[in-house]
Amino acid sequence: MRVLMVAMLCFAAGHAVNARADTLLVVGDSLSAAHGIERDAGWVNLLRQRLSSQHQVINASISGDTTSSGAARLPELLKRHSPDIVLLELGGNDGLRGLSPQQMKLNLRDMIEKSQAAGARVLLLGIEIPPNYGASYTDAFRGVFRQLSEEYDAPLVPFILDGVALQDAMMQDDGIHPTAEAQPVILDNVWEGLAPMLKRASTTTND
């Protein structure tokens, strides 16, 4: 009887280890840093609430970040948090500044490779830029996310502001940043790409 109880305790302890909450690391710019609104109202915090205690959500987003600055600080974030999933939401500031899509691609590629090498899966959160930049630039910009998604088998949310960007009531006066009312829509956009990854993680853990 004593041997049986010890075995049951060991079995339960093993399952407790396997059932640890996954860590999600969000590396983004002002769209994920809740610029201009209460931080608690931002989509990242809403994600944290939706997942409850099932997962740990770390928001390492900084307003104004480009892919270059994000790539520079990512290694320390990976070392500190050991994430299971990295959500990359960068590129908007590269576009607004007219920076090279090719350099943006190299920066994002570096971030994807470093994340995957650290054992994390990557979700790309794409962004669109206004058409006044010219068709060739906007096409090249948009293509970066699609190409990297295919190259690294990384799920892609093509446009994180889908259903938001052209709605005046959902955008702040600057026309760039979404309002608090828009955050649940943004979360739903992210969720479409993230939910299958969470299911996969759960299945892997149970196996």
UniProtKB/TrEMBL annotation:
Keywords: Signal
Keyword presence, rRNA-binding: no
Transmembrane segments: none
Signal peptide: 1-21
Domain SGNH hydrolase-type esterase: start-end pairs: 26-182
Keyword Signal: yes
UniProt xrefs under InterPro entries: Ester_Hydrolysis_Enzymes (IPR051532), SGNH_hydro (IPR013830), SGNH_hydro_sf (IPR036514)
Highest taxon, organism lineage: Bacteria
A GO term for molecular function: phosphatidylcholine lysophospholipase activity
Name the UniProt record assigns to this protein: Arylesterase
